[in-house]
Protein: DNA-binding phage zinc finger domain-containing protein
Organism: Phaeobacter inhibens
Amino acid sequence: MPDFTAHRHPVLAVRCPDCRRAPGNWCRRPSGHMASDFHASRKAEADREFIDQHGPDASIERVGDGWAVDPRGRVGIRPRPEPSAPS
Ligand SMILES: [Zn+2]
């Protein structure tokens, strides 16, 4: 099971479906150069795994030198119904 807090970036917890880099390794361009960003498919895969593991209300945040999962981190940023106008 991927550990999203174990790496320098949470997306590093999953293998890249695109360039096949193993967990913990940054994405590579076909030229062999280190990519400046992760492949979109890897970010999608990390999202999916994260929600599988922690649920749709969880978020991951930078804490000091590492990362921490907040199980309710997304609750506050969900759109809420407008308060009804005073009559
Ligand atoms: Zn990649």
Residues 10-73 form one domain. The longest helix spans residues 40-54. The pocket of zinc ion is lined by residues 16, 18-19, 21, 27, 39, 42 (CB under 6 Å).
